[in-house]
Amino acid sequence: MRVTFVCPTPVVGAQVIQGYADELAARGHEISVVRLRERAGLRVPGWSRRGRGQSSVRVVTTARLSPDVVPDGDVVLATDASTSKLLPALSGRHGRAGQLVQSREQWGADPELRLAVPKIATSERLAGVLSGLGVPSSAVTVVSQGLNLAVFRPPHPALPRGHRVSVPVGPDSGAATALEALERTRALLPTMEVTAFGAGRRPEQLPSWIRYLRSLPTHELVRQVYQRDAVHLGTAASAARAMACGSAVVGVRGSALSDFAEHDRDSLLVEPGDVNGTAEALVRLMLDRELRTRLVAGGFRTAATMDSADSAVALEKALHGWTEAVAPQL
């Protein structure tokens, strides 16, 4: 198949898109990524197969999204609301139009999610959200986010992690609650070190005592964040990677994280927006080594079931099905 992913800048959920693209390319498909040229203050790492050598994925960078920059193919996947606006302008030569939905927050307006195109949802929770918007269940396929376990793994030999916490900063990361909880935690544990990471310039709301890493390639994100920090406070995608690398996880109950994580088995889950509960969970994990060790072990077991090769096979099957179906008029 010839598959094209159309991405905004910054590329929301870049590592998931890169993972899908690279795995499909490794399975012999012709994969292209069309993305907007970087704005000032943004750096997008080069495309590489997560440490496994150069990728065959073709990357097209453009100043403006238009049908002319989308290559001929079999499937075109929009990855957010802005790129979905391109789909009605595409023709049959571009292939079957569809959407990849990684989070509700990155879409904003509902009309784009209601487009009459098939959709890949990365969690059962998102499939439920789409159903609530009136999207027929027949139009949604759940393909769980996979992990390249050869890359996302604990360091060897094991390193002391101390009172270190990592947190992603982005439009759908719940950063405001996380930062307030970290402020309260630091008042109790002044030795705590926090690393935030994201795609653009350092956010203005970040306190000066938080280290910020910008647009790191995957292997550096693993080395400098996931393999280094004792506790991770993040989204479903980042939490899964942190589990695989040996961090204990604090997450939000009812979010996409709940699709694979379970409270007190492999993580501590708190209610949405619960600053005090988040701070209490962080303090517990910092001070209770036995609890942290038990949750890390549970995280390893959970991550072991999330092989990216399995996700690639499921995505491949879904996209094949799209090419065999009759496309509706947009």
What is the secondary structure topology, with strand pairs?
Elements: E1 2-7, H1 14-26, E2 30-36, E3 58-62, E4 75-78, H2 81-84, E5 96-101, H3 110-113, E6 119-121, H4 124-132, E7 140-142, E8 164-168, H5 175-188, E9 193-198, E10 211-214, H6 218-226, E11 231-233, H7 236-245, E12 248-252, E13 268-270, H8 275-287, H9 289-303, H10 308-324
Helix pairs in contact: 1-10, 5-8, 7-9
How many β-strand runs? 13
Arithmetic mean of pLDDT: 88
- Total individual domains: 2
How would you name the CATH homologous superfamily of the largest domain?
A: Glycogen Phosphorylase B
Question: In whole angstroms, how far apart are the ends?
Answer: 22 Å
CATH architecture of the largest domain: 3-Layer(aba) Sandwich
Instruction: Provide the gyration radius in Å.
Output: 20 Å
Lateral strand order in the biggest sheet: 3-2-1-4-5-6-7
Sketch the topology as an H/E string, one letter per element. EHEEEHEHEHEEHEEHEHEEHHH
So what's the CATH class of the largest domain? Answer: Alpha Beta
Measured by DSSP, the beta-strand proportion falls in 15-25%
Global geometry: elongated
GO molecular function, one term: glycosyltransferase activity
Keywords: Glycosyltransferase, Transferase
EC number: 2.4.-.-
Pfam family, one: Glyco_trans_1_4
Write up this protein.
With 330 residues, the protein is α/β, with parallel strands linked by helices. The protein folds into two domains: 2-146 and 308-324, Rossmann fold (3-Layer(aba) Sandwich); 164-303, Rossmann fold. The chain is 33% helix and 18% strand. It has ten helices and 13 strands. It has helices spanning 14-26, 81-84, 110-113, 124-132, 175-188, 218-226, 236-245, 275-287, 289-303, 308-324, and strands at residues 2-7, 30-36, 58-62, 75-78, 96-101, 119-121, 140-142, 164-168, 193-198, 211-214, 231-233, 248-252, 268-270. A seven-stranded parallel sheet has the order 3-2-1-4-5-6-7. Strands 10-9-8-11-12-13 form a six-stranded parallel sheet, sandwiched between helices. Helix 5 (175-188) links the parallel strand 8 and strand 9. The longest helix is centred in the last third of the chain and has 17 residues, at 308-324. The radius of gyration is 20 Å and the shape is elongated. Residues 40-46 and 48-53 have low confidence and may be disordered.
